[in-house]
Structure prediction request, 446 residues.
Amino acid sequence: MIPAGFGRLTDPPASLLLAGVRVIDPSTGTDEVRDLGIVGGAFADAGEVPADAPRIEGHGLVAAPGFCDLHVHLREPGDPASETVESGSRAAAHGGFTTICAMPNTEPPIDDAEAVARLQERARDAACPVRVIGAATVGRGGSEMADLAAMANAGAIGFSDDGAAVGSATAEVMRALGGLGRPLIEHAEDPGLAGDGVMRAGATAVALGLAGWDAAAELAVVERDLGLAAATGARLHLTHLSSASSVDAVRRAKADGIRVTCDVTPHHLALAETWVAGDRAFAWEDPQRNPPLAYDGSCRVNPPLSTREDAAALLRAVADGTIDAIATDHAPHPPERKRVPFDQAAPGLIGLETALSLGLAAVEAGALTLIALVGALSTRPAAIIGESRSLSRGSRADLVVFDPAARWRVDRSSLASASTNTPLLGMSLPGVVRLTVADGRVTYRA
Ligand code: DOR
Prediction:
C-alpha cells in the first residue's frame, strides 16, 4: 500500500506495479493497455517489480507522462498567505504535474542569480520539481536588462517580466538571449492599448459597464516580438495567448521558420468572457440564459477571458499543434483581493488542480483528442525547457495516473493550494488524479 497524501522529492525512490493501465505516451504515439512497472524510481518491465511492491489495479485508469507547467505563480518570496513553494508544489502534484516553472513577479522580484538559487534551494524537498524563470529586467521595470547570463548559470530556464510585457529593453534582451539558448517568455499586452480595461472589450463589457481591452493589445506585442525574434534569432515563447489573431500570427511565423513557441491556459480554452456576467457554461456550449452571479472577481484575469470564437480557435490550434502547450498561469490571490468590486480585483485564478479536468471536459465535448491533451500538458512543454518525458523501460519514472471518468467537486477541502480563487469553485468536474510520480518519487497518491 502506498499511503494516501503527498510525498517529497527527498523521499526514497518508488517501486510499484500498475496492472492493466491505459498507457498514453505522446512521445511514441502509444495508446495501449498494458502493465507498467517502476523499480527504484525507473520504469521497468512488470516481471522486474519485486513481489512485495505495491500493486495498483489500473482498469479504467490512464497513465501518462507527468505534466509540465510552464507558467506558475508560487508567491515566494513575499506573499505566503496566497501560496508557498510547499502549498503550490502540492497543488501541482494533486493536478498531475511533475515539473512547474515559477514566474519571477514575486516581492521582491527574482531578478538576480542569488534569488534564483534561493528559490531552487527552497524547492529541494517540495512535492514537485520547481524550475525558475528569471526576470528579464531589473525589478521587472522593463527598461534595464537584468544579468541574464548569471541567472542562466544559476539555473534559470527562461526569462520573463510576466504580469507585464518587457518594455524598452526588449530588443537588448532578445539579442542577449541569442547566446544563452533560453527563451524570452513573453506576457503579450501593450499597456497603452490595454489602458484601464478590466475585461475583454465587446458586448459583455458594454452590458456590464466595465472598461474593456481589445485583443489588438495582445497582437501588438506578439507582432513586435516576432519581428525581434526574426531579427535576432532568439527563442521566443509567447505565454497565455488568448485570441485567434495572435495564434494566426504564430502560425505564420512558424511557417516562416521563426523560433517561436506558445501556450494557452485551460481557462482561455474552456471559459468565455460571458463568465464575467455570471455565465457558467463552457465555451463550447451555449451560454446560460439567466446567469446567477455577475461581476465575480474570480473571473478577472490577465489576459481577460475571450470570446467563444477565440476559445474555439485556441482549441483548434492545440489540436493542430500551432499551440505547443497548455500552461495554467496558476495565480493565487487571497479573498481580500478578489471579493471586491470587479474593477478592483487582482487579476488571476488558480489552475494547477483544475487543468486536467478542463482539458478532459474539452475531450468529452469532442473538441480535443486525449493524446493531444496529454501531449500539450506533458511532452511538448517539457521539450520547450529541454526536458524529456518517456514511459519506456529504463527512463526515470515521471508520470501521472488519472481516472478520466471519475468526477470531483472543486472546494476548499479538495484543493491543496493555499488559495481558492477560481470561478470553478463548487462545480463538479471530470478527471481525478490517483497517483503522481516525479523524479522517481511518489509525490501524490489518492
Ligand atoms: O491574471 C494574471 N495574474 N495575469 C498575470 O499576468 C499575472 C498573474 C498574477 O501574478 O497574479
